[in-house]
Amino acid sequence: MSKVDTRDLADLIRRPIVTEKATRLMEDNHYTFEVALKATKPQIKAAIEYLFDVKVVGISTQRPPQKRKSFGRSVGYRPQYKRAVVTLAPENSLREVFFPEV
């Protein structure tokens, strides 16, 4: 496994995804993020561990199919994105990231 440059890790994680399903998964210590299209699982793991100082146990990635979008007569497509569901060790949590205390 090649060493990942820590300067590039912040660019891999785009944003957390907070949907109804993702919120349900948080109860089982699974957190969902939108990541760069070319990010690999080892790079995503290194980025999450470096940015949030947690231990990652597993990662699942998905690239949902592109959706069509009509613009008058012409037809285009919505931008492609990649979703990563990150499983953390039982003693770790990212609730502060998703739900900051007011």
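(ticket continues) Second input and output from the same batch:
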Amino acid sequence: MKPKIKAGDLMLFYRLDQTYQIKDVHVYTKEDTTYVGRAVAKGGDEVNISKDRQLQVNTNTVMETDKYYPTGEDEDGISLPVTVPSQSYFLLCDLCESGKDTRIFGAVNRQKFQEKS
């Protein structure tokens, strides 16, 4: 997702491996809508966004070198900090200033990831 995915872009994906890592890009469905996001935390991790808009995982600030926009907490979203449930991931989209991602609707269970296109 570099520099960013934007409206009208064509994206192909294929999941070869069923293991999931932090920084992997995932296609998932929430509320009958398909989203794309990068995993920043996994089950058991605590996620927070500091007042200066820095992503924190397990109280450590994450250097988001692939991001072009700062990560902010969404006023209409979930209450942070949050502990990611088992078998789930905290996923952030490229456009962290206005995009919909897990800051809005909470962590995504890995069963919601698209296994094929």
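Agent notes: The first strand starts at residue 25 and ends at 30. The mean pLDDT is 81. Closing as not reproducible unless the customer responds.
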